[in-house]
Amino acid sequence: MTRGWLRMCGRYAATRDPATLAAEFDAIDGTDALGGSAPGPDYNVAPTKPVLAVVERHPRDPDGEPDPTRTERSVRVMRWGLVPAWAKDPAVGSRMINARAETAAEKPAYRTSLARRRCLLPTDGWYEWKKEDGRRQPYYVTPPDGSSLVLAGVWTTWRPPDLADDAPPLITCAVITTDAVGQLADVHERMPLMLPRELWSAWLDPARTEVEELLRPTDDAFVAALELRPVSSAVNNVRNNGPQLVARVDPGADPAPALDQPRRRGRRPAPETPELALFDHP
């Protein structure tokens, strides 16, 4: 890592509810599909947590077959960390939170999803850590106007061999990453592929299987407009949550306690894990 920046942690913030996202993305709220339920506002999203994603698919006809003459955009619940259909153990998803843009079309775990199952992952921003004066200072990367920061993603479904045919599958996703550009190149060698509004439809288009030109790093001007905000190191603990995690602090300031629930007597606190990389996984 260069310029004193540490590896990014697998954390981001996502606080918009399904109705808000449905309006923003001109979609329907499909979060209750397959018996699921939408996650609430989360200021400390970590791998394997449920997240909201936007997909566009051909709806099925009365016979259960996709209707190629129509498309339907919806907000869905997925688990962050892609589990390939051929995986024997869904735990593999915790290590597959990213897909590199340069190699995703070649990797067995991602190539079918990249061609046929792409999604948008709306976020408020993500966290990263920098070593300053012997301590890890977290920063929050976010649009300064509070708008959604939309990441390009891929998704798939997984079923264990003994799952009943009518039981819902596990739906999982991964973030597409590229070489970092602009101010983010001083932070980390990788960054998520962020999609401006004018590329949302092209990325979601189920009829489009060739997406090489969409996998280019996000425009320098878009990246230059992002804010890198110093925040409390309370975000290090996965049990901490709430808007206080994204509030600006003086770099190096001691964090305020932020646990949503008191720790039970005799239990160890959850570990701080800033070493879990977000955007440098294969």
CA radius of gyration: 19 Å
CATH architecture term? Alpha-Beta Complex
Q: Please report the first level of CATH classification, the CATH class.
A: Alpha Beta
- Give the overall silhouette: globular
The CATH H-level homologous superfamily: SOS response associated peptidase-like
Instruction: Tell me the major beta sheet.
Output: 8 strands, mixed
The percentage of residues in β strands lies in 25-35%
Output the structural class. Answer: mainly beta
Oligomer: single chain
Distance between the first and last residues' Cα: 16 Å
How many independent structural domains? Answer: 1
Key attributes of the depicted protein:
single chain, 282 residues, disordered N terminus, hypothetical protein yedk fold, mainly beta
How would you portray this structure in words?
It is a single chain. This protein is mainly beta and 282 residues long. It has a single domain, classed as Alpha-Beta Complex (hypothetical protein yedk fold), CATH 3.90.1680. The protein contains four helices and 13 strands. Strands 2, 4, 5, 6, 7, 10, 11 and 12 form an eight-stranded mixed beta sheet that branches. Strand 8 and strand 9 form a beta hairpin. It is globular, with a radius of gyration of 19 Å. The two termini are 16 Å apart. The N terminus is likely disordered. Its EC number is 3.4.-.-. This is Abasic site processing protein. InterPro entries: SRAP, SRAP-like.
At a glance:
Keywords: Covalent protein-DNA linkage, DNA damage, DNA-binding, Hydrolase, Lyase, Protease. The chain is mainly β. It has helices spanning 18-24, 111-116, 200-204, 220-224; strands at residues 12-14, 28-29, 42-45, 50-57, 72-80, 98-100, 118-123, 125-132, 135-142, 149-158, 170-179, 190-192, 227-230.
